[in-house]
Amino acid sequence: MKIVLFANTDWYLYNFRLPLIKSLISQGNQVVVIAPEGYYSKKIENEGIKVVCLRFKRTQTNIFNELGLVLELVRIFFKIKPDLIHVFTLRVVFHAAVAALLTRSKLIASITGLGSSFISKKPLSLLIRFISMILFSILFSSKNRKIITQNKDDCKIILKYTIVPKSNIAIIRGSGVDRKFFKAKLCQELNPTSYKILMVSRILKDKGVIDFVKSSSYFVGQKNVSFFHVGGFDYGNPESLTKELLDKFKKYSNVTFIGHRDNVQNIMLESTVLVLPSLREGFPKTIMEAMSCKLPVITYDSTGCRDSILHGKNGFIIPKSRPDLIAKYLKIILRNTEIRKRMSKSAYFYSKNNYRADLIDKLTINLYKKMIADVKS
Q1: How many domains does the chain contain in total?
Q2: For position 187, what pLDDT does the model report?
Q3: Which pTM was predicted?
Q4: 3-class SS at 275?
């Protein structure tokens, strides 16, 4: 098979889909990656993978930029003549779908979360939601189109508000965790007198960064508990926090902001608990990776997050926008050695049995094969 993988950033394809690409190539498939040129384009090429770089800028949303992307994709699809196109992230799903329609190409769209417009009740967000459902109905109702959602909530929304048939939708939970994350010693014990609380995310409002900062204020003065945030600003995202606003909250907390890191495994191995107070996710990779490093998880009862852990077994699911409850359940984990050890062990094995990238990639590749076979029949 000749497979095209397309996303709105090279960062996404490198950090989330590299194991899938390698698996496809190892099975004798030809893979072409399409993304705007960036720092990770060269890293992908260094893996021996062909990369086609776009001139598209995701921060520009004028009509000429959007039409330009569709026309450029049409040109590329005609040139490559792929057996299947797999597009990731809602930002470029409809562009790829239109280009695939014009070139008569088979297409799978992975919805890695329906995005902040499905949280907000602002008029613009409601309009975006309405238009999105119409476009899904128009572009994804034929048999040579498939949608992959990462959680049950997003699947229900698409089925409820569009005419996309149920047979055109599959649920595959995220992109999985690379095998290297499971090489940590299972018997590893952290210093029981010093605790590190970790959050990994972009610095966005809907990721719950402010709630994480607020929760740390309940531990001010406790020198044996420290809070760390890993991840950078994303100024091209409308939900991005400004440095000035973040600095105001930091004055009343003890969170250390480390910034972006390519490999967070070492940081996770030195941590005690992962906190992800996100308001909406597709299926959070940071939770899957943290669990593979034996971290119990505290997360909100929100789309994507609630599906990723087992409440009371490998973490706690709490109501949204409650930093006080984050602090409460952190204290339960930190003060009770048996609960902490039990949750750590449960997290590791649950991730190993459910979130390994090879398991997720097998489901994805089987969907490729089934779709191609069904369209031919």
Answers
A1: 2
A2: 44
A3: 0.89
A4: strand
